[in-house]
Design goal:
Length: 516
Amino acid sequence: MHSTLSERLEALAQTHGDQPAILEPGRTVTFAELAHQTHKLAGFFTSRGIGANDRVALWLPNTIEWVSSFLALSHIGAIALLVNTRFRSRELEDLIERGQATCLIYWPGFKGIGFDEILGDVSATAQEKLSTRISLGQLQDALDQNWPAIAAHGDHGTLTFTTSGTTSLPKFVLHTESVILRHADAVAKHFDYDGDTCVLASAPFCGAFGFATLISGLLTGHPVACEPVSTADSLLALVRQHQVTHTYANNALILQMLKASEDRNDFASCKLFGFASFAPAQDELFELALHNGLSLTGLYGSSELIALTAAQPLDSNQGDTSTRYQPGGCLVHESARVRARDPETGHLVAHRESGEIEILSPSHMAGYLDQANATRKAFTEDGYFRTGDLGWCISDRQFVFQARLGDSLRLGGFLVNPAEIEAVVESLPGVSACQVVGAQHGTNAVAVAFVLLEKDSQPAPDRWHAACKRQLASFKVPVHFEVLEAFPTVESANSVKIQKHKLREIAQQLLDKQHA
């Protein structure tokens, strides 16, 4: 068992040297070439004054250079602060200041975006902290030069993911090399990677979802196909060209790929597509997947546990397959365990009762960077991570995710999953999508529904209310339906997330106005 990424990369360079490691449109790097590039960049970074424990903001899209830069930083013992390419000046400034970055690696001309201008909008105080700036062109030039060999650093905290920060300042989630390796091995084993495996990575490497996809293939000796900018058509072309077998993506993107396909044989090589339910109302996904012979399964993960923490089973010998299309699943680490706890009483609940999901897994974070108190609060005394997610357990290894705990509703004295109400509303004529939140109405907690309309449809709140009343317990029926043009969202490295806290604020304002 290797304890560092450098050890694993050297081993793969010996055993898989001439085999492709990263497949980009128009270029490929083998495992031997990747190891060579990593050593070159390690020498280059050292010459630029970067050393052990230095914090480096890595602001690149999914490219070979992202991979070699990250591996080189890990080799010399630096910590890569992974930056979303969608970040702009305020977010970048926060990462530099609170993450204490002293170096920035970036692609100034990526997608025609003025990254130098964005950097120029960052405060002078934050900019002064960056003693070193390295562009993509400098990385590429460095590979043509000779640099002294640098001894590999030992196992250490090597990267941070940035949490979405939908309700508070983002946290920096630190993971060690050995944990990353263990997780890559566990994912590859769980999903039955073999000699034909080729993994498609569409989610950004800077987020836990894209990173887990990358390492599951790369660190276990399997090629990973990626591209700096993706569309459904371009990803479908990669599937065809490289005979992709596995990918993990959000449900909306997989649906777009299925719609872009005009030939069922496009997915002939695909053994499994895992999906995260980031977008609402995607039932068409399952119909098209079945038509195209594509196996789908629901996933679960987090920055703190690394994505691909769990996946719903396809075989009844592995677990309950009736929940196959629901988020959650069987934990990929054989030693991992899951349980649920009543958030009000603090007592553990029985299987199939809803509560806060707690997970014990070898993939858990080393901690929140520079936040010891927050790290302690994130874990129970016996080492389970408090996910902040509402769900229920099927066994001590399988569970179903329902909602973020802060998004769950306490209605009529019962803990209610808003998705249950949303599914009913979305089934009504004229409704394309729905989000349900809780608000206070007098002395009672009630549900409020926010609705997006189908094209050329008109609001029908009275009819919607009557339909819900026929299908749901009275305490679950929304007391108000509000039509929006779009849901408020925030972009993270993994997806565009709906900001339910903003919907809750709007809901409370609406009810307060009615009650006045």
